[in-house]
Amino acid sequence: MNRLDTAKRAKIVQHLCEGNSIRATSRLCGCAINTVVKLLTEMGPACQQWHSDNVVNLQTLVVQVDEIWSFVASKEKNTDLDGKAQGHGDCWTWTALDSDSKLMISWAVGPRSPELCRDFCEDLAYRLRNRIQLSSDGLGMYNDAVKLAFGKDVDYGQVIKTYGMDIFAEKRYSPAICSSVKTKAITGDPMDSLISTSHVERQNLNIRMGCRRFTRLTNAFSKKVENHEAAISLYFMFYNYCRPHQTLTKASGNAGKRYPTTPAMASGLATEAWTIERMISEVLGESN
User: Fold this and answer.
1) Distance (Å, rounded) from C-alpha 195 to C-alpha 190?
2) How far apart are CA 169 and CA 175, in angstroms?
3) Residue 150 belongs to what domain range?
4) What CATH number has the domain bearing residue 175?
């Protein structure tokens, strides 16, 4: 059986992680669409497993959580019962971001439900060593989920936004107008100045730009929930370990020169930015 060499696999993975679609990646890399999909579905679960095993015992102090919407195969209103049984319809990605290192600590893919919110918060708590300050939006599901996952060992606050509609805006495409923002302490003694979701909401833009399946108003949406989960896991692995974050660039001490820093480096999980080739070998267990 033919097997792609590491350089070819790295080229495919890089195109996928930089926001190209399956078909565009196939054309750019000169390979079949099925080859791209096969590599994606192989790498995605491997990245998720590697993250689960290795991103633990973090020294994180400030965490922001949020949810980003997408859909699989069809939007919720256009999905029948058979489609829902296959995972079709609205699909939410729950994300937990280290506000300082910008590391994506935890994520979960599925419905916007209390059960998944609880699982997501428990996974987040499992990966942390210290008492943290946690911030979320005003979604009510977080109250019980955070309490069950952290107990009283957390300083938790919410950012509550009130929205109105601009009567002069295009109703179909324009977002609602945020008319007011206030913060609210929920558990412990959170610092008011640190109750924020700005960093994790900015990360939503990174996801939409870096993962083609989140692009709005196109036909790039996922057709299978398994492929959707695989693409998200692959993107976050690339984001954490391979792509330097501009706000984390550090001075090298050599005539004021600076060197690129990834979220994994800033969190102490890596000593250098990984190449795509190294990421593939690490997650697939091909390291020497």
Assistant:
1) 7
2) 9
3) 56-223
4) 3.30.420
Is 29 within the bounds of a domain? no
In a domain, 244, yes or no: no
Residues ≥6 apart with Cβ < 8 Å to 198: 64
The Cα 163–Cα 186 span in angstroms is 21
Query: What is the pTM (predicted TM-score) of this model?
Result: 0.90
Query: Considering the domain boundaries, does residue 208 fall inside one?
Result: yes
Question: What's the rounded Cα separation, in Å, for the pair 235 and 36?
Answer: 15
Distance CA 253, CA 250 (A): 9
How far is 270 from 31, CA to CA, in rounded Å?
32
The pLDDT of residue 250 is 59
Q: Which two tokens stand for residue 182?
A: 């206030």
The residue with greater pLDDT, 1 or 159, is 159
**Cα(45)–Cα(33) distance, integer angstroms:** 19
Residue 181 belongs to some domain of the structure: yes
What pLDDT does 110 receive?
A: 95
- Give the pLDDT confidence score for residue 252 in this predicted structure: 46
Domain count, the chain: 1
**pLDDT surpassing 90 at residue 177:** no
Identify each DSSP E strand in 87-242 by its residue range. 89-98, 104-110, 133-137, 155-164, 177-187
Any long-range contacts for 7-11 (C-beta under 8 Å, 24+ apart)? 7/277, 9/39, 9/280, 10/275, 10/276, 10/277, 10/280
Name the nearest CA neighbour of 91 among 196, 207, 201.
207
pLDDT value at residue 219? 85
- Of 277, 287, 233, which Cα lies nearest the Cα of 14? 277
Answer whether 203's CB lies under 8 Å from 97's CB.
yes
Q: What size, in residues, is the chain?
A: 288
